[in-house]
């Protein structure tokens, strides 16, 4: 990864990279780059990281505004033999500081604005790193990046494939995220290499425009960077804006043939598909990970593209394991009843992963049709959590990894996800209820069903203005299990992770005064 951009450029890859805004790195003011220019930027960045004191075996913490230069910074650190830890700027102070304490980084690369925000909350991230470099403006206790720029980069330094390569964190929907370390063997050889083939229909082609709208601090994008550059599409376009209007204008200049995005991004951009001249008219492949995408959104994008053979590839997995299952949606597969859901996750990745369902109490395997904890076995599994070895060991059992999810398998081996164990109430799937309500109430932006212990499930209706149609809700739930009186909230009041997932326990605490949910939470 330290020489990824150099290698791809030297092989003659003609890929152009388009950005919706310039990188935050110094010396990168353009919004279009070829691979040779990006290789030079990685080498320059490696030089000033070394001048700031980063060396072989050191840890680099990266916390900045969301952009793909997270991966350029990571590649620059890897080039030095260091280990980058990519931490989302979306983390609040109570989450970021414990992660920095676990990391003990030699160097922190961040912004003055982020330091100011956390210092105002009573904590100073710079105190938890050997040295801090800021990218945007001078800050007390930190080195301005211009003070270390211009140093010549050392030559690339290789490491053992089993050694730590990169550290990412989990989404953090239930509290402080875990720090997940991956090696070259797991995230590159097992995951990125698997994606680097030109599979029929779902593989990236040389004439593709591949667009990504993601949280670039997470492991999925690091893996995507390795694979997509090797596949050398004609164009890559990177979206960072959360504004549908800004994204619409950018995508009109770079209409995607392949579009990968966070579920939250798909949800925010869904309204664009109702326009006659929307930018997804020639998209042949949609890709979603992190969380299921609700049926109305699936139908909107697949129905809006002009490609009759368009496919939606939905992946389910975890930062610790990479993808575990894939499911493919087409227009035809979505023609069922309006109450269909997207929780059927498909089958385990052939020759790569195995899954079993076990009783949460005894860990004994359960037959098809019985819900239980989902365990996974894969060669791509992370070597461990950074700073939480006991927590890791508690989730590993005889080579099987406890995902912490409740699901059920049918007789053919397909997996249906019911809930996270910590949120699961017996005899109920909150996730399936959310799908049904979003399907029946088209004015909803999102529905979140929470499970306060000993009480009926609490539906939170996310709408544009925080209001809702009570009569329509009553009609939509007449045949559903008993629910508490719904609560409506505007979208901008919902606590979310950097990947757009709802922080369910934070929302539950906002609404009820307690973050305790129905499950045990033993495997979060």
UniProtKB/TrEMBL annotation:
GO terms for molecular function: ligase activity. SUPFAM superfamilies: Acetyl-CoA synthetase-like. Residues 36-385 form the AMP-dependent synthetase/ligase domain. The keyword Ligase applies. It holds the Pfam family AMP-binding. InterPro entries: AMP-binding_CS, AMP-dep_synth/lig_dom, ANL_N_sf, ATP-dep_AMP-bd_enzyme. The keyword 4Fe-4S does not apply. Keywords: Ligase. This is Acyl--CoA ligase. It comes from Streptomyces sedi.
């Amino acid at each position: 990864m330290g020489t990824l951009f150099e290698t791809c450029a030297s092989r003659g890859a003609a890929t152009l990279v388009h950005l919706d805004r310039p990188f935050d790195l110094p010396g990168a003011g353009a919004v279009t780059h070829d691979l040779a220019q990006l290789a030079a930027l990685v080498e320059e960045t490696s030089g000033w990281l070394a001048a700031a004191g980063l060396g072989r075996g050191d840890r680099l913490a990266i916390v900045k505004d969301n952009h793909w230069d997270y991966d350029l910074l990571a590649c620059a650190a890897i080039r030095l033999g260091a280990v980058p830890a990519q931490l989302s700027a979306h983390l609040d102070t109570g989450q970021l500081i414990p992660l920095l304490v676990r990391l003990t980084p030699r160097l922190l690369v961040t912004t003055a604005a982020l330091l100011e925000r956390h210092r105002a909350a009573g904590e100073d991230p710079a105190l938890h790193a050997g040295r801090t470099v800021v990218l945007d403006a001078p800050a007390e206790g930190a080195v301005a990046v211009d003070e270390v720029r211009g140093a010549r980069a050392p030559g690339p330094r290789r490491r053992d494939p089993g050694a730590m390569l990169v550290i990412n964190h989990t989404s953090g929907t239930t509290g402080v995220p875990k720090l997940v370390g991956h090696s070259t063997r797991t995230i590159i050889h097992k995951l990125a290499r698997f994606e680097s083939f030109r599979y029929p229909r779902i593989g990236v082609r040389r004439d593709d425009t591949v667009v990504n709208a993601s949280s670039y601090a997470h492991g999925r994008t690091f893996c995507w960077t390795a694979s997509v550059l090797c596949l050398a599409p004609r164009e890559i376009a990177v979206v960072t804006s959360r504004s549908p209007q800004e994204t619409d204008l950018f995508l009109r200049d770079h209409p995607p043939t392949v579009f990968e995005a966070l579920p939250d991004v798909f949800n925010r951009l869904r309204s664009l598909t109702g326009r006659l001249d929307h930018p997804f008219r020639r998209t042949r492949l949609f890709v979603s990970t992190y969380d299921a995408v609700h049926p109305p959104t699936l139908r909107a994008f697949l129905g809006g593209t002009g490609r009759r053979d368009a496919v939606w590839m939905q992946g389910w997995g975890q930062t610790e394991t990479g993808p575990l299952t894939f499911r493919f949606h087409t227009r035809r597969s979505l023609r069922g009843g309006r109450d269909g859901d997207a929780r059927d996750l498909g089958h385990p990745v052939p020759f790569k992963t195995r899954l079993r369902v076990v009783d949460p109490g005894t860990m004994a395997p359960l037959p098809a049709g019985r819900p239980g904890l989902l365990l996974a076995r894969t060669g791509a599994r992370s070597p461990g959590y950074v700073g939480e070895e006991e927590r890791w060991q508690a989730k590993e059992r005889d080579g099987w990894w406890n995902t912490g999810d409740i699901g059920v398998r049918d007789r053919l081996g397909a997996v249906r996800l019911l809930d996270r164990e910590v949120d699961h109430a017996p005899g109920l799937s909150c996730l399936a209820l959310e799908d049904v309500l979003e399907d029946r109430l088209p004015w909803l932006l999102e529905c979140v069903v929470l499970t306060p212990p000993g009480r009926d499930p609490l539906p939170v209706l996310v709408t544009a203005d925080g209001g809702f149609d009570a009569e329509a809700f009553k009609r939509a739930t007449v045949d559903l299990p008993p629910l508490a009186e719904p609560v409506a909230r505007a979208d901008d009041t919902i606590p979310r992770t950097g990947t757009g997932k709802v922080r369910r326990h934070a929302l539950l605490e906002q609404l009820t005064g307690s973050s305790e949910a129905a499950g045990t939470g033993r495997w979060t």
